[in-house]
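Researcher: Structure for this, please.
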Amino acid sequence: MKSNEQEIQQIEVLIGRILATGTYVSAGFLVIGLFLTLQDTNQVFVATDLFSWSKTIYGLTHLIPDTYLLVGLFLLILTPVLRVLVSIFLFVKQRDLIYTGITILVFLILIISMVFGIEG
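Model: Predicted structure, token format:
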């Protein structure tokens, strides 16, 4: 059986991979969006509507630069949110009630901020 320290170390490695992967994938979308923007200067697309899966899929399949830039930024914002979510599970596993509570509070603040940011 694995010791508690080994499990914690594996979770920390997972957190590091989440941060690295999220950063690399979002950077890839941003680079593609920038490249497409520089290639097609006549195409103007302004995202004034709220997020929609159908518009995002359409934009990605039709190589609309703004869609790639928006997805890249979304993934960049989502990366630390996932890190906080994984940290909640780490603190629950450690049975650290104080840090679990603080991390849940931070997660709720992040979610509430995003909801009000979208609606406001």
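Researcher: Any notable elements?
Model: The mean pLDDT is 84. The radius of gyration is 18 Å.
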